[in-house]
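Posting here for the record, re: iron/sulfur cluster.
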Amino acid sequence: MTDAALSAASASAALQAALPFTAEVERETAPIYARMSRVLPAVEWSVHAPYIAAIQRLKRERNAVILAHNYQTPEIYHGVADFVGDSLGLAQQAAKTPADIIVQCGVHFMAETSKVLSPEKTVLIPDRLAGCSLAASITGADVRLLRERFPGLPVVTYVNTSAEVKAESDICCTSANAVEVVESLGVPKVIFLPDEYLGKWVATQTLVELVLWKGHCEVHERFTGLEIEALRAADPGVFVLAHPECPPDVLAAADYVGSTAGMIREVGAAGVRRVVMITECSMSDNVATAHPDVEFVRPCNLCPHMKRITLPKILRSLENLEHRVEIAPEIGVRARRAVERMLEVARGAKR
Ligand code: 13P
Ligand code: SF4
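Prediction output follows.
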């Protein structure tokens, strides 16, 4: 075996060797398990708990914070995260955390956003390959070509993009604030990138005209209006919440459309007994723990990129300070301007 093959084999052996579930670990992690016992069988807990205990300890030693997206699995979401949220919430936390190290449990563009906002901090992603089909759909060169094709139009860019694409943009947005961001510019027409379906949904909420790109989320584009019809036929009382990355016929059939954080808030506010979340699988598991009286119907489309993040990889990330997210300063400065401009709109919306 070559040196590289040997080191890959030993890394994968380390990932597979389970840590022991001792009485001390069981005692230490019992309050955490109490929060998620409804969605995680005890037999699985005995595998996760030792990692959770080790990660909690290392986090304190390293003055690290774990930011986890709402699509992370329950053992990460409830077990080790210091903050959970949608893309906007995680960006806001990254901007203000006093920690020295940020471990981003989400996909690569989220870790890049944290680095853009905190260039002086060490930002780690437990698996470098955690990508996103939207971020992969467009490059900085594409944005420059669009500017040539539509001179004078401002560019609004969804945060699900690389730092390079953000750097070419006037302002960023998330699914939580896309309409406010588009309207904040005070112009009749903008270029909106790269999610076509989010853009189409924004266009139904504003008089601003949008030039769209054909990027799609590989998870949400698989939902169909026919699926929603079938769910309603099976139970006319079911409350349908959908993420705006879904196709237009899905969104037209939904009772609520919003970001992952918006969907979570709405489950609490709507006072309904049966809900279906048209989004990534783990959302229902994570939200169900707080709503024991609500029944969750679970059509399940899984984000393979989000699922690359696991407890053993988070532990290795903290042990070895890997994988560091780095952004060239000339790109970081320009990307930061676009993200901060968005955060300013979000602060204005709160006032
Ligand atoms: P949110 O910002 O709504 O959490 O969405 C991020 C995402 O990647 C959804 O697929
Ligand atoms: Fe990207 Fe879709 Fe996965 Fe979200 S769910 S990270 S948009 S591929």
